[in-house]
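Field: COMPLEX_INPUT
Field: COMPONENT_COUNT = two
Field: RESIDUE_TOTAL = 732
Field: MODE = joint
Values follow.
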Amino acid sequence: MPRLIKNGAVVEDRWTLLREAASLAELPAGIPVIVPLALWRTERAALSERGEVGVWLKPDDEPEALAEDIAMLPLIAIDFPKFTDGRGYSIAQLLRTGHRFTGELRAIGDVLRDQLYYMRQCGFDAFAVRADKSLEDALQALTDFSDGYQATVREPIPLFRRRTSPGLVRETSPAANDPS
Amino acid sequence: MYRYDAYDHRLVAERVAQFRDQTRRFLAGDLTEDEFRPLRLQNGLYIQRHAPMLRISIPYGMLSSKQLRKLAHIGRKYDRGYGHFTTRQNLQFNWPRLEDTPEILAELATVEMHAIQTSGNCVRNITADHFAGIASDELVDPRPYAELIRQWATLNPEFAYLPRKFKIAVNGSTVDRAATLVHDIGVHAVRNEQGEIGFRVLVGGGLGRTPMIGYVIREWLPRAEILNYLDAILRVYNRFGRRDNIYKARIKILVKERTPAQFTRLVEREWERSRGGAASVPDEEVERLASHFDPPPYAVLSGDDAGFRAAVADNRPFGNWAKRNVFAHKVPGYAAVTLSLKKTGVPPGDVTSDQMDAVAALADRYSFGELRVSHEQNLIFADVRQSELFALWGELKVLGLATPNIGLLTDIICCPGGDFCSLANAKSIPIAEAVQRRFDDLDYLYDIGEVSLNMSGCMNACGHHHVGNIGVLGVDKNGEEWYQVSIGGAQGEGASLGKVIGPSFAAHEMAEVVSRLIEVYVERRHDDEHFIDTVRRLGLEPFKERVYAAAH
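Field: COMPLEX_OUTPUT
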């Protein structure tokens, strides 16, 4: 079984990513699948009955399209066709803060060690690191920095509020609570 | 100036460690060139024509003497004993070794400096008025806000892989010395009728291949909302900016294609989500940052120094220097001094390590140990007592830093060009030198008066040629270096883009071309008209006629 980084550890991946699936007939039976947004939109009713279905988004997909489904989806994946294409960071941010998505948010595609820290700050908690790269090696990047200046999904209180008010009770977000 | 606390120190130290490891993995073959490129660029490292180039960040141009000494040391130890100040108030070293870069960054960290995001498709160094805090035309000191934005931009996880580079400038004066109209975002600190500070926000200005003046997308933004609003602009750009064509990837193209009105609606909708949230900036944070820019302990002086006035009257060379290189200060008895890095024969913006050390010592003696870099590629002592100007002038002359040409034709803005840069189509430094030699008669130079000559070696416009009163652009024609000339550009609050006068010229013709442009101005100017005013009044024709006429 393939592996990935999830919640700060290397684990086996239960999910099968279907990059091309265009109809229900193409889905393997009985296993958790991640389907393209287009299929989800046309077969939403049938897919939600199936259980354990996630959706993956291209960088130019509109996350707004999942607004009604956020609560029922256990997993959303965002594709990085090239690691230099940064649209997925903003999509993650929107899903976590705008739509309050609390399920697994997975980075797929050209996912490399040196981008993982930023991805996690933006709300990703699972990283399907590119198959030719070492997961154990990539794992180390999650601790590259102890802190940052900005308000992020993972640390919603910007540093300037923590700097000036050391006694401030920290607000939390779902992602900040995860054990990773 | 801003001083690091434990958080800032740790962040920069962790960045150095991260890049040290990335460099190690690249040299070991674990990272490909394509994988390493954005990482090294976001740490300031280019691979250039002859060697790597390392661009060091100087936030809004503020430097301490201690930092300048460190730069001098790095120039000596890791480079060839000099550095180059850029039009983004940064410093470049042209000859470091890739293998040494992590060590250079570690040395920089000891003096609260870094090279983070000085290149790459991310938010670059934040620039501001080099006379911030001392100009009498200032409404609001922009530096606390520039620092606030610098921290927001630094290692911002959402905006590290934008479609293209992103430049932000902050201004707080009635006069725009920060070229805010030609930045991806221009931020104007302003006061409303109630005396509250807020911001006017401009988006979509820029130079490069498609020069544009920025649009005002918000006339008044409450001060607390600046970071939320920047997030909104960057998020819209990050999602919708073009990634299919590098020449159409800047935010100005998005603003133009969507129209400013529709772009603004997208930004405002995005802002509504975050408005008033955790990233709203409390007054205490602004006060904390502002306290870093408290005025130095000025002596209480009654007014202009009589000895300085007398020396200006008695000594013509000193008077010339005082007229061009000394800027009025809002505190009685003080002045700001520009150290010209535009001496004929020296590439514009270049400073040797020995000069840096000497300048650091002078900053300690004459200007509270601080200095600034201007986007015109000069250095500034912002807080000099008028009574000490004559002595300082004497010291600067010895160092070759007292050329009395600020704002004049020979104060040329110039990129490193084809001598160094692998992007350049043509050399720029030899053209600058040829023009400087042609105009070596100071009386003539003074008679010509204020005129800006900006030169870029390629379309990327690092030398800001579009906003030069005279702009020169290096172009490639069948492998040969040619120069396209434009006139009528201007920076500042009346910013305009120059218009090309016609077919381009060979290098050896350039000094003559500039001479003829100036001749037309001198012959046809009205009293008190600067070059730019005459161009605007007459249009291009008379200038074109003279330049393209057979040799006379």
